[in-house]
Amino acid sequence: MAVNFGLWYDFRNPPEWRQPFERMYSDYLDQIVRGEALGFDSVWLTEHHFCEDGYTPSPLVIGGAIGARTSRMRIGTNLIVLPLHNPVRIAEDAATLSLLTGGRFDLGVGIGYKQSEFEAFGRE
Question: pTM for the full model?
């Protein structure tokens, strides 16, 4: 039985270590590329909205950037808050991301829990 090792990124930029978001995203993407070179098998992204520290609001977009810069590691969401989205659109975007990455994308979805996100998106 093979053991796989993965990375988990939420692209947070906490106030005590705040840096320009453009630099932070670039640095994290560089880390992920180095992680693949070191043998990590996957990278996982999560989703939240309206967080002060910038917690990943667009994991599929970030997944595309990772896919463009890596060649082997799997890219997955852990998770997309599905009730905040149109599920058909998420399925189409995930299928497109899978095609663009040679089938390396894994879609993980969940129901969410942050009431403020549901209220902001007009969902129950």
Answer: 0.94
